[in-house]
Amino acid sequence: MLRSAFRSSFAALSKHAGPVGSAPASAPAAATASNPDLLDRLQQAMKFIADPANPGFDSNLHGLEITHAEEGRVVCLFKLTEHHTNRMGNLHGGLSATIVDIVTTLACVSKTNHPGVSTDLNVTYLNPATVGDTIRIEASVIKAGGRLAFTAADILRNHDNVIVAHGRHTKYMAGGAHKKA
What is d(CA 129, CA 156) in angstroms, rounded to the nearest whole number? Predict the structure, then answer.
């Protein structure tokens, strides 16, 4: 039942229209105008995904705010609390991987209308982010082909634009990544 609700939250995205193309994950958030309809649909999906009432690890992302959405590109903000850190007080590596997973999936959905299934996820950790920091996540679809979609995300400290982590995520798209519903 939960999985069907998750799928239906993404299925609602199939009715959006917006500009074609994507910017690299490191592009400034204001590079292209956000698509308001797409932004609203992704925000609704994210509310469901990170709802603390739902079981699963994704509820750790409760409070993640999608601030920009266009076809193939999503930008989010997330304020870190103690709950998000490791024993050294830095953003937990596992949560960083979850952020890359979820936000690149949203970017993928914004381009293909399908979340796909993860086949590979890689995160490179570069700098710390600590309790109280707001991080900015910039995710984009690098290429969506016949069966695979390749995505990337940068996690940055919002106050100084220092890259905290860089991730790459490959998704298998059962219906074909290039097809839009």
Answer: 8
Residues lower than pLDDT 50 in the chain: 1-30, 181
Neighbours of 91 (CB within 10 A): 25
User: Are 85 and 130 contacting, i.e. CB atoms less than 8 angstroms apart?
Assistant: yes
Neighbouring C-beta atoms of residue 55, cutoff 10 Å = 9
pLDDT for position 176: 62
Does domain 2-172 match CATH 3.40.640.10?
no
Round the CA-based radius of gyration of the chain to a whole number and report it.
15
Question: Tens digits of per-residue pLDDT, 68-91?
Answer: 999 999 999 999 999 999 999 999
Question: Residue 96 phi/psi, 5° resolution?
Answer: -60, -45
- In this structure, are strands 163-172 and 148-157 parallel, antiparallel, or unpaired? antiparallel
Residue 105 CA to residue 99 CA, distance in Å, equals 10
Q: How many angstroms separate the Cα of 66 from the Cα of each of 36, 77, 154, 161, 173?
A: 11, 7, 14, 17, 23
Cβ contact 153:127 at 8 Å: no
